[in-house]
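Researcher: Quick test of sequence recovery. Tokens follow.
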């Protein structure tokens, strides 16, 4: 008779018991138990069809170790997913998936929905004026007041070229929440999945819904720091092979966004030399041109399940920076090999 060691929910491991299959009313857990065994066999003997043996007295210790670690990982990722969905401010869900290895949630990452100011930086500035439109756009709408083109069509999709800034309506405006000039401020409109890549690029993000071209996808948020602090952190990040610094250089090079510890889903978006997301500078409440919000829009139609990527060298100006691997002010950095795999790959991130 086959017996299964059962960890009872809400009870310590000292209360574990061995039970025959007929006592188990958890078909999904049993299915996962066998799936994990097949996963282990597939990974340990690549190219050889995995076969589960019946009527064995006990499992291979290596399989047992893997199954236990996989179960603990699954619980940890589920809790992390629940945490992300509690903290996010947008409506659509965030899913987490790892079918590749035993990596769990990042240990030193804190989810935020908007910029976090580092000590000494004030981001509390709010718009003092707004448009008086009853129906935007009009000749006196916010973009016109800023001397720029109205960014969206009637469907909320971009109609401007990369490099042009976006001025959305703010809390001082007369228009309501359904105004066509309120897009980025409503948050990510698509369900997204943070997943483990199978080609060594760590975590990535894929969409669970089709995204039309020129649609807003997400903001790039993090800790706003000075360029001097970015220089110091950049050297540290280079030594670890990570890239999370994004210069806010629309009007000056005073500030940088660091998404290494504080960020949202964009923290996990990978680089590609042939990306499907494009960077735009956005101004809503804070009209300080030194601190634009960074929005990522689709540059092409993106299919369900397709990974989201942007070019780490792309700036909000629409130009490519060839000075650094982290979109920071011109500084010499070690060359970092690019793993994007696109046919137009430049070979390096810098």
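Model:
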């Amino acid at each position: 008779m086959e017996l299964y060691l059962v960890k009872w929910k809400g009870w310590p491991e000292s209360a574990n018991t061995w039970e025959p299959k007929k006592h188990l009313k958890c078909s999904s857990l049993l299915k996962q138990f066998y799936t994990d065994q097949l996963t282990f066999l597939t990974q340990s003997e690549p190219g050889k069809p995995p076969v589960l043996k019946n009527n064995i007295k006990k499992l291979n210790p290596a399989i047992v170790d893997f199954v236990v670690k996989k179960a603990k990982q699954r619980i940890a990722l589920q809790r992390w997913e629940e945490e992300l969905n509690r903290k996010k401010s947008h409506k659509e869900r965030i899913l987490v998936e790892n079918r590749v290895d035993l990596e769990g949630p990042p240990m030193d990452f804190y989810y935020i929905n908007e910029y976090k100011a580092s000590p000494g930086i004030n981001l509390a500035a709010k718009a003092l004026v707004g448009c008086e439109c009853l129906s935007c756009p009009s000749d006196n709408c916010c973009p016109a007041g800023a001397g720029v083109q109205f960014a969206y069509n009637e469907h909320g999709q971009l109609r401007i070229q990369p490099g042009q800034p976006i001025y959305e309506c703010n809390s001082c405006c007369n228009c309501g929440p359904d105004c066509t000039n309120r897009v980025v401020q409503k948050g990510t409109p698509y369900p997204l999945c943070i997943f483990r890549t199978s080609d060594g690029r760590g975590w990535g993000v894929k969409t669970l819904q089709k995204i039309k071209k020129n649609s807003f996808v997400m903001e790039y948020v993090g800790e706003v720091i000075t360029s001097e602090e970015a220089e110091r952190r950049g050297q540290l990040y280079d030594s670890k092979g990570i890239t999370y610094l994004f210069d806010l250089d629309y009007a000056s090079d005073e500030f940088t966004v660091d998404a290494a510890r504080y960020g949202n889903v964009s923290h996990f978006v990978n680089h590609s030399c042939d990306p499907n997301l494009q960077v735009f500078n956005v101004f809503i409440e804070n009209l300080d041109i030194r601190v634009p919000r960074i929005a990522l829009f689709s540059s092409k139609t993106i299919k369900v399940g397709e990974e989201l990527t942007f070019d780490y060298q792309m700036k909000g100006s629409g130009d490519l920076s060839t000075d650094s691997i982290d979109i920071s002010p011109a500084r010499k950095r070690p060359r970092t090999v690019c793993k994007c795999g696109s046919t137009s790959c430049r070979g390096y991130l810098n």
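Residues 321-331 have pLDDT under 50 and may be disordered.
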